[in-house]
Amino acid sequence: MTENLVFLAAFHETCKSMWTQDRLQTLGRIAVQGRQFENWWKFELATALWEFATARGAKVFIEAHGRADIVVCSYRQGRGGVELDPAGALCVPIELKTTGTWWGNVRKALEETGADRLATDFDDLAKGARTVAPFGLVGLLLTDATHGPKALERFVSHAIALGESFGLKLVSQDVLQVPRLYTNCQPLARQLFWANP
How far apart are CA 142 and CA 173, in angstroms? Predict the structure, then answer.
Protein backbone atom coordinates (compact mmCIF):
# COMPACT_ATOMS: atom_id res chain seq x y z
CA MET A 1 0.00 0.00 0.00
CA THR A 2 2.80 2.43 0.87
CA GLU A 3 4.46 1.75 -2.50
CA ASN A 4 1.21 2.66 -4.24
CA LEU A 5 1.01 5.95 -2.36
CA VAL A 6 4.62 6.77 -3.25
CA PHE A 7 3.91 5.91 -6.90
CA LEU A 8 0.78 8.10 -6.95
CA ALA A 9 2.56 11.00 -5.25
CA ALA A 10 5.38 10.87 -7.82
CA PHE A 11 2.87 10.47 -10.66
CA HIS A 12 0.89 13.47 -9.42
CA GLU A 13 4.03 15.59 -9.15
CA THR A 14 5.09 14.61 -12.69
CA CYS A 15 1.65 15.43 -14.10
CA LYS A 16 1.59 18.75 -12.28
CA SER A 17 5.14 19.79 -13.17
CA MET A 18 4.68 19.01 -16.88
CA TRP A 19 2.75 22.27 -17.21
CA THR A 20 5.53 24.59 -18.33
CA GLN A 21 4.65 28.13 -19.38
CA ASP A 22 4.77 27.10 -23.06
CA ARG A 23 2.35 24.21 -22.49
CA LEU A 24 0.01 26.43 -20.48
CA GLN A 25 -0.03 29.01 -23.27
CA THR A 26 -0.83 26.29 -25.82
CA LEU A 27 -3.58 24.97 -23.54
CA GLY A 28 -5.01 28.50 -23.30
CA ARG A 29 -5.08 28.86 -27.09
CA ILE A 30 -6.84 25.51 -27.45
CA ALA A 31 -9.35 26.40 -24.72
CA VAL A 32 -10.23 29.67 -26.46
CA GLN A 33 -10.87 27.79 -29.71
CA GLY A 34 -13.29 25.40 -27.97
CA ARG A 35 -11.95 22.20 -29.51
CA GLN A 36 -11.05 18.70 -28.33
CA PHE A 37 -7.31 18.25 -27.82
CA GLU A 38 -6.86 14.79 -26.33
CA ASN A 39 -4.05 13.78 -28.70
CA TRP A 40 -2.03 16.87 -27.81
CA TRP A 41 -2.39 16.16 -24.07
CA LYS A 42 -1.65 12.46 -24.64
CA PHE A 43 1.71 13.11 -26.28
CA GLU A 44 2.71 15.90 -23.90
CA LEU A 45 1.87 13.73 -20.87
CA ALA A 46 3.61 10.67 -22.33
CA THR A 47 6.74 12.79 -22.86
CA ALA A 48 6.58 14.05 -19.27
CA LEU A 49 6.16 10.49 -17.95
CA TRP A 50 9.22 9.13 -19.77
CA GLU A 51 11.72 9.74 -16.94
CA PHE A 52 9.08 8.79 -14.35
CA ALA A 53 8.70 5.36 -16.03
CA THR A 54 12.43 4.86 -16.57
CA ALA A 55 13.11 5.47 -12.86
CA ARG A 56 10.77 2.54 -12.14
CA GLY A 57 12.36 0.18 -14.66
CA ALA A 58 9.42 0.64 -17.02
CA LYS A 59 8.62 2.25 -20.36
CA VAL A 60 5.88 4.51 -21.67
CA PHE A 61 3.68 3.09 -24.42
CA ILE A 62 1.05 5.00 -26.41
CA GLU A 63 -2.14 3.41 -27.75
CA ALA A 64 -1.22 0.00 -26.35
CA HIS A 65 -2.75 -2.65 -24.07
CA GLY A 66 -6.29 -2.56 -25.41
CA ARG A 67 -5.63 0.87 -26.93
CA ALA A 68 -5.16 2.64 -23.60
CA ASP A 69 -4.02 6.18 -24.33
CA ILE A 70 -0.81 5.77 -22.29
CA VAL A 71 0.58 2.75 -20.44
CA VAL A 72 3.43 2.92 -17.92
CA CYS A 73 4.47 -0.71 -18.00
CA SER A 74 7.16 -3.31 -17.49
CA TYR A 75 8.62 -4.36 -20.81
CA ARG A 76 10.34 -7.21 -22.58
CA GLN A 77 12.47 -7.53 -25.67
CA GLY A 78 10.35 -8.74 -28.58
CA ARG A 79 11.15 -9.55 -32.18
CA GLY A 80 10.38 -6.02 -33.31
CA GLY A 81 12.01 -4.29 -30.34
CA VAL A 82 10.75 -3.36 -26.90
CA GLU A 83 7.14 -4.37 -26.16
CA LEU A 84 4.99 -3.95 -23.12
CA ASP A 85 4.65 -6.82 -20.67
CA PRO A 86 1.27 -6.56 -18.88
CA ALA A 87 2.23 -9.64 -16.81
CA GLY A 88 5.26 -7.77 -15.42
CA ALA A 89 5.59 -6.02 -12.08
CA LEU A 90 4.13 -2.72 -13.31
CA CYS A 91 1.22 -2.08 -15.69
CA VAL A 92 -0.63 1.21 -15.29
CA PRO A 93 -2.96 1.93 -18.23
CA ILE A 94 -4.04 5.57 -18.38
CA GLU A 95 -7.15 6.66 -20.25
CA LEU A 96 -7.48 10.37 -20.99
CA LYS A 97 -10.45 12.59 -21.72
CA THR A 98 -10.54 16.28 -22.53
CA THR A 99 -13.57 18.51 -22.66
CA GLY A 100 -14.54 22.10 -22.26
CA THR A 101 -17.51 23.93 -20.83
CA TRP A 102 -18.29 24.97 -24.41
CA TRP A 103 -20.26 21.69 -24.53
CA GLY A 104 -22.79 23.38 -22.26
CA ASN A 105 -24.56 20.16 -21.27
CA VAL A 106 -22.36 18.51 -18.63
CA ARG A 107 -24.14 15.13 -18.81
CA LYS A 108 -23.74 14.96 -22.60
CA ALA A 109 -20.08 15.95 -22.35
CA LEU A 110 -19.10 13.45 -19.67
CA GLU A 111 -21.46 10.51 -19.76
CA GLU A 112 -23.55 10.29 -22.92
CA THR A 113 -24.27 6.61 -23.52
CA GLY A 114 -23.03 4.87 -26.63
CA ALA A 115 -20.17 7.36 -27.01
CA ASP A 116 -16.57 7.37 -25.89
CA ARG A 117 -17.05 9.59 -22.86
CA LEU A 118 -15.58 9.79 -19.38
CA ALA A 119 -18.26 7.43 -18.04
CA THR A 120 -17.12 4.75 -20.51
CA ASP A 121 -13.53 4.97 -19.25
CA PHE A 122 -14.72 4.91 -15.63
CA ASP A 123 -16.80 1.82 -16.33
CA ASP A 124 -13.89 0.03 -18.06
CA LEU A 125 -11.56 0.82 -15.15
CA ALA A 126 -14.09 -0.23 -12.50
CA LYS A 127 -14.85 -3.52 -14.30
CA GLY A 128 -11.19 -4.37 -14.89
CA ALA A 129 -11.31 -4.29 -18.70
CA ARG A 130 -7.46 -4.24 -18.77
CA THR A 131 -4.78 -5.92 -16.68
CA VAL A 132 -3.50 -3.44 -14.10
CA ALA A 133 -0.60 -3.66 -11.67
CA PRO A 134 -1.16 -2.15 -9.16
CA PHE A 135 -3.95 0.05 -10.60
CA GLY A 136 -5.20 1.86 -13.69
CA LEU A 137 -5.89 5.57 -14.06
CA VAL A 138 -8.37 7.80 -15.84
CA GLY A 139 -7.45 11.44 -16.43
CA LEU A 140 -9.66 14.38 -17.30
CA LEU A 141 -8.53 17.79 -18.51
CA LEU A 142 -11.33 20.36 -18.32
CA THR A 143 -11.13 23.82 -19.86
CA ASP A 144 -13.21 26.97 -20.00
CA ALA A 145 -12.78 30.19 -21.93
CA THR A 146 -16.32 31.53 -22.22
CA HIS A 147 -18.63 30.44 -19.40
CA GLY A 148 -16.47 31.24 -16.36
CA PRO A 149 -15.47 29.61 -13.06
CA LYS A 150 -18.98 28.51 -12.03
CA ALA A 151 -19.43 26.51 -15.23
CA LEU A 152 -16.02 24.89 -14.84
CA GLU A 153 -16.74 23.98 -11.22
CA ARG A 154 -20.06 22.44 -12.30
CA PHE A 155 -18.15 20.17 -14.71
CA VAL A 156 -15.55 19.34 -12.03
CA SER A 157 -18.23 18.50 -9.44
CA HIS A 158 -20.13 16.33 -11.90
CA ALA A 159 -16.95 14.46 -12.89
CA ILE A 160 -16.01 13.83 -9.24
CA ALA A 161 -19.51 12.53 -8.42
CA LEU A 162 -19.44 10.35 -11.54
CA GLY A 163 -16.10 8.82 -10.50
CA GLU A 164 -17.49 8.08 -7.03
CA SER A 165 -20.54 6.37 -8.57
CA PHE A 166 -18.13 3.90 -10.24
CA GLY A 167 -16.24 3.33 -6.97
CA LEU A 168 -13.11 5.10 -8.21
CA LYS A 169 -10.85 7.24 -6.06
CA LEU A 170 -9.88 10.79 -7.05
CA VAL A 171 -6.09 10.71 -6.59
CA SER A 172 -5.12 14.14 -7.92
CA GLN A 173 -6.73 17.41 -8.84
CA ASP A 174 -4.78 20.41 -10.06
CA VAL A 175 -5.84 23.94 -10.87
CA LEU A 176 -3.75 24.96 -13.87
CA GLN A 177 -2.67 28.60 -14.01
CA VAL A 178 -3.39 29.39 -17.66
CA PRO A 179 -2.13 32.84 -18.70
CA ARG A 180 -4.54 35.45 -20.05
CA LEU A 181 -3.97 35.48 -23.79
CA TYR A 182 -6.67 37.93 -24.82
CA THR A 183 -8.11 40.89 -22.98
CA ASN A 184 -11.69 39.62 -23.18
CA CYS A 185 -11.26 36.15 -21.62
CA GLN A 186 -9.31 34.24 -19.01
CA PRO A 187 -8.92 30.53 -19.89
CA LEU A 188 -9.40 28.18 -16.93
CA ALA A 189 -8.30 24.55 -16.61
CA ARG A 190 -8.40 21.62 -14.18
CA GLN A 191 -6.50 18.34 -14.43
CA LEU A 192 -7.95 15.36 -12.52
CA PHE A 193 -6.97 11.68 -12.19
CA TRP A 194 -8.87 8.74 -10.72
CA ALA A 195 -7.59 5.27 -9.82
CA ASN A 196 -9.34 1.99 -9.12
CA PRO A 197 -8.79 1.11 -5.46
Answer: 11
Domain that holds residue 157: 2-195
Task: Check: CB of residue 139 under 8 Å from CB of residue 92.
Answer: no
What pLDDT, in 10s, does the model give residues 17-35?
A: 999 999 999 999 888 887 7
pTM of the model: 0.93
**What secondary structure does DSSP assign to 108-163, as a single string?**
HHHH-TTS--HHHHHHHHHHT-S--BS--EEEEEEEESSS-HHHHHHHHHHHHHHH
Q: What does the pLDDT look like over 60-106, one tens digit per residue?
A: 999 998 899 999 999 998 888 888 898 889 999 999 999 989 888 89
Helices assigned H by DSSP within the chain:
2-17, 21-33, 38-54, 106-111, 118-127, 149-165
In eight-state DSSP terms, residue 182 is B
Number of domains in the chain: 1
H or E segment to which residue 57 belongs = none
Give the span between the Cα atoms of 12 and 172, in whole angstroms.
Answer: 6
Residue type, 56: R
By three-state DSSP, how is residue 21 classified?
A: helix
Residue 127 sits at φ, ψ, to 5 deg, of -85, -5
Residue 147 exposure: Cα atoms within 13 Å on the Cβ side = 19
